[in-house]
């Protein structure tokens, strides 16, 4: 039998590095196994990217898995709650008296034993899709928090994720990982890497002369992809022809009024050549414009961003970030796996980056072979699952653009040109023109975005599934009416039990969260 | 009517009188009332004493349970009082104690302006002709000052229980005759199992803090769920 895999080095101390290290340490039970070790090395000279403030509900499971105290996390990372992404002006360019807006909620559409979608399609349009199928729309619009003070940590009848300060989150995980999970931490900038005869990584050489070797390496070195690209020469699959944005300008905007209500959702607003994110944390907003450099200039982009924010950004300087859109041809090569920006990036529209980090690190923990004999199979299986997952994420992101009816800029014309859309998406959209999307269209459990996510975006964006010829297949119109009524009653009831978002955060800071 | 609790004001409230209502009908639509630790013993033979989470803070508070549904009180109803112990938090009404400042030691007497007990002709006067608190008011002030300290002590008691992992969800299924069985959520009790496994030094602390009577009174009071069920069986909502 060949050598057992016991020592792992994680390169990079951004959120990807610390999240991966924590997940691995937990799953491999590091703190209780003296011969298994995880060491995280990061460069003191190369700062983490420092953006990435939106998460999705899997973050709750991940934090719970690695043993984080929810109230501590909320206090330490300026956390607010996220129940949805609100998409503004994605369907039409705004006019003075009309703006389009829809929610992609985290609560899945209510299903009273059957799918409400066809009944919404057949109904006289009084409600938006998300209002019709979920009471969470009302909760969001009222700026209410997603849980009651009597709910236990991580629990609620409403699905939620978090907005967080990326820098503080990495530090928080660093402390937790070292204190509770037995992760070792060293500073060092990797200057050189030596390979073994079989092409796998042998030793990392730091600028200060130190050396580090391990059985297995996790590359979380950000866009520099120090191991997977620079050393192992794994190629990058560019997806810039499908997802056209490649630059971001980011700003942190302090609140002028510290009691101002905080929206419990991310606000994503489409503009002429991209879109802005707007995330309310406890002390400030994080705002940024993501755009396509081949469709607009940096100057124009900054103008758009400043116009969007208004007076509050006077005197604040913007940060420019270049984005490489696409992913590695292989995520796992020999004894190295890339996670985070080193593995790839598909623009921040649905906050998929951290989600992918969580999913990939969990998959790695599951697939990490006992010894080197298992390596080839693990690599192959991991790569095919991961690539499939990345491609499906790209489909979903592209969907947001592709359904737009905006014609105000070449950016939108290009984005809605079928030649920029993946075939896998076009094929589904063609089918859904006359057929309702169903769970079987998303058969793999490694697809992060499922039927429900598609329903919110498709029908939020006015996608017309033509079911006029088959209405007889949908005999539950009365029951659907009753369900829709019950939902609006439930929204009223819940809105009385829930506190305002800011009040909830303040109360959690003051009283913690009762664990019993 | 919702209550409107304001600090007592010798000018604004100079002519007010308080009707004495020994049936405590103000509580008839409320199924629980905060109960302080020192009251557990006398209360325990009358109603279940449990812990509930407060909606504002999520923290536990001990309460006397007097009904099995929201808005139902089977102990104080129809103008009758079916208990031999009336919790201080019922007796004090329409008065209450507000903390005068961040320094919680000084007490400010408050009153529920919307109370049906307040009027200009019946009952005792809140202020005498000279504008000074009447004898009854002085008595209430004394009672409430006393409560304030005991309420804090009660919270310390609950914190002690939480800190030593003694509180657990009470899983209760009640048989409600024709209505069938119903699960009651959101109430908590002391875990006998955890209690029996406490380290000696913690047990000693319980003894020295005089927490043991309250703990066993609470456990014994859980038998009173049956009494609530019996009362409910011959209960007509008021
Ligand atoms: C504009 C923008 C918006 C985003 N918004 C979101 C969002 O809303 N939600 C979301 O989930 N994600 C978002 N992301 C993505 C998210 O920021 C990243 O996925 C996340 O921060 C993880 O980054 P990372 O840890 O992979 O890389 P980085 O944060 O760049 O960390 C790299 C680490 O590697 C170390 N390192 C690099 N080279 C070396 C070397 N030679 N030797 C030693 N150490 C080295 C550095 O010191 C650093 O610690 C966004 C990204 C961008 C660009």
Report the β-strand fraction of chain A as a percent range: 15-25%
The level of helicity of chain B is 25-40%
What's the name of the CATH homologous superfamily of the domain at 7-78 and 163-237 and 326-392 in chain A? FAD/NAD(P)-binding domain
Oligomerization state = heterodimer
Mean pLDDT of chain B: 90
Task: Please characterize this protein's 3D structure.
- The complex is a heterodimer of chains A (516) and B (238).
- The longest helix of chain A has 28 residues, at 375-402.
- Chain A has 516 residues and is α+β, with helices and mostly antiparallel strands.
- Helices cover 35% and strands 18% of the residues of chain A.
- The termini of chain A are far apart.
- The mean pLDDT of chain A is 96.
- Chain B is globular, with a radius of gyration of 19 Å.
- Chain B is an alpha+beta fold.
- Chain B is 29% helix and 22% strand.
- The longest helix of chain B is centred in the middle third of the chain and has 29 residues, at 135-163.
- In chain B, a hairpin with a 6-residue loop joins strand 4 (49-53) and strand 5 (60-65).
- In chain B, the strands form six sheets. Chain B has a three-stranded antiparallel beta sheet with strand order 1-9-8, with helices on one face. Chain B has a three-stranded antiparallel beta sheet with strand order 10-2-11, with no helix packed on it. In chain B, strands 3-5-4 form a three-stranded antiparallel beta sheet.
- Chain B has one domain.
- The chains are: A alpha+beta (516), B alpha+beta (238).
- The interface between A and B is medium-sized, with 12 and 14 residues.
- The structure holds flavin-adenine dinucleotide.
